[in-house]
Design goal:
This protein has 199 residues and is mainly alpha-helical. The chain is built from nine helices and two strands. It is elongated and about 80 Å long.
């Protein structure tokens, strides 16, 4: 069931700002088709828009990815905002957010880093059906891990440069490590390597 615009009325009722004889116009749609329900939700989402990510949070593919990543890898696939707010602190490092997963796959799996960076909301709209597919389960995860690796490398480079300055030898060494890791990931990603080796 989707209840829209209920929040202001419940608050007004709690604050005793509504008269006992107040009447509220209600429009009900009895729907058994989930696809039609999703379409109604998205189509009527115009006055106080719900985040696009939250609109697809209960899609079958999102629920299935959450289940697979949890059971196979012990990861917490966050398909809606603040889903794992109450998780133990030591488990928070195992949270992977579905928006970041989608962005990473758009950048790496779909070879479109510019769109992934500049239009991140599109992973839940026009790019959605081309990204979130059950056959992409492993590539989605691997794309995310590559993105995480690149982020950690960037932090490492920034840290080294802040200590030693931007010397040519430091930059070259970091580039070589990055290229080596990237090559390993690329080989693994394309099925040419059965494991990822770090040097």
């Amino acid at each position: 069931m989707v209840v829209k615009h209920l929040y202001p009325y419940t608050n007004a009722y709690k604050d005793k700002k509504l008269n006992d004889d107040v009447e509220v116009l209600v429009k009900l749609h009895k729907v058994s088709n989930k696809d039609l329900l999703d379409l109604i939700t998205i189509s009527t989402n115009n006055q106080n828009p719900i985040n696009q990510r939250d609109l697809v949070a209960n899609d079958n593919i999102q629920v299935e990815l959450e289940k697979i990543y949890r059971e196979l890898f012990g990861l917490y696939y966050e398909r809606k905002r603040n889903q794992y707010n109450n998780i133990d602190r030591d488990k928070k490092k195992y949270i992977i957010k579905n928006d970041k997963v989608g962005q990473a796959f758009l950048a790496i799996g779909k070879c479109n880093p510019a769109k992934a960076l500049s239009s991140k909301t599109k992973v839940f709209s026009e790019e959605y059906n081309g990204i979130y597919k059950i056959e992409y389960t492993y590539k989605l995860l691997l794309s995310f891990l590559i993105w995480k690796f690149c982020e950690s490398m960037k932090k490492e480079v920034d840290k080294v440069i802040s200590i030693f300055g931007e010397s040519e030898s430091v930059v070259e060494l970091t580039k070589k490590r990055f290229i080596s890791y990237s090559f390993n990931y690329e080989q693994y990603y394309n099925g040419k390597r059965k494991y990822i080796r770090f040097r």
